[in-house]
From TrEMBL:
Lineage of source species: Bacteria, Bacillati, Actinomycetota, Actinomycetes, Streptosporangiales
UniProt keyword annotation of Transcription present: no
Organism, scientific name: Nonomuraea cavernae
Protein name: 3-methyladenine DNA glycosylase
Gene Ontology terms, MF aspect: alkylated DNA binding; DNA-3-methyladenine glycosylase activity; DNA-7-methylguanine glycosylase activity
Record-level GO BP terms: base-excision repair, AP site formation; DNA alkylation repair
One annotated Gene Ontology cellular component of this protein: cytoplasm
């Protein structure tokens, strides 16, 4: 199945899709040499594969599998067609140039909560490469092969029931300790309710009512699943320091970050994304956070 869509205004397709990529070897996300982006999804109609490319300002979507129709129907929303940027105003000079360069930034939404929740939980309190390795292992072990002519090795995230049944020794082999494994399994029991949440506020309430899910994880999920432009990743290991240094020349903590982002209320996540795109970082002092391989415990 195919669909063509011409967005209103500038759109950076790869920038809109990049938040859904979990490391360079993500089995659910791939960028091929022809510039196309491939992603898999567990849609309400079943597994599907989506290929997105751009030519002369027109987005071309191709999809395969039982979920193909759903993927093409929601393609504009995935790329930020519903993202209202009208209320966003640059309040710091450091953002003026990056906002012009990335005028095509859009906060899209997948409409799929578990797809965003599982990798977000895996990323709790560990370095990225450890979480992404666990994500790859679990998808290769429990995911389905991607429908259609997808690049080799692409997989579709398993159903909620599968997450509930993964044995403890496989979580251990993946590198996820009992706390994160239990958090994902518990969320999977409530997957239907989470997927049916009508607003970002309702989804935030439901997520944070689950053990093991706090402000950071909820924000990471809502950014991707419902395209919330105001969901700030409070508690992130790096973000507050990046925001503080870019806007003031000094690092700060989470309360300091929220004060600096207050002028962008309603678009604080959008502002944070633009700040990270400036590339401004405080000089490194001290060793990096060590990788903790839970498979060795």
């Amino acid at each position: 199945m195919e669909r063509r869509w011409t967005p209103e205004g500038p759109l950076d397709v790869e920038l809109a899709l990049s938040p859904h990529r979990r490391g360079s070897g993500d089995p659910a996300w791939r960028r091929t040499l022809d510039g196309a982006v491939w992603r898999t999804c567990r849609t309400p109609d079943g597994p599907g594969t989506l290929r997105v490319s751009v030519a002369v300002g027109t987005v071309a979507g191709q999809a395969w599998g039982p979920g193909a129709g759903w993927l093409l129907e929601t393609l504009p929303a995935l790329l930020g067609a519903d993202d209202d940027v009208s209320g966003f105003r640059v309040e710091h000079e450091v953002l003026a140039d990056v906002a012009r360069k990335h005028a095509g930034l859009r906060i899209g939404r997948t409409g799929r909560v578990m797809e965003a929740l599982v990798p977000a939980v895996l990323e709790q309190k560990v370095v990225g490469r450890e979480a992404w390795r666990a994500w790859r292992w679990l998808l290769h072990r429990y995911g389905e092969p991607a429908p259609g002519p997808a690049p080799d090795g692409m997989r579709v995230i398993p159903e909620a029931e599968v997450w509930r049944q993964i044995p403890s020794w496989h979580w251990h082999r993946a590198g996820a300790e009992a706390v994160r494994a239990r958090t994902i399994a518990t969320a999977a029991w409530h997957a239907a309710k989470l997927e049916a949440a009508g607003t970002t506020e309702e989804l935030d309430r439901l997520l944070r009512a689950l053990p093991g899910i706090g402000v950071w994880t909820s924000a990471e999920v809502r950014q991707r699943a419902v395209g919330d432009p105001d969901a700030v990743s409070v508690g992130d290991f790096h973000l507050a320091k990046i925001v503080g240094y870019a806007l003031t020349g000094e690092t700060t903590d989470d309360p300091g970050m929220l004060r600096l982002l207050e002028p962008y209320r309603g678009h604080r996540h959008r502002a944070a994304v633009l700040i990270t795109l400036t590339g401004l970082r405080a000089p490194a002092r001290g060793p990096r956070m060590p990788a903790r391989d839970y498979r060795s415990f």
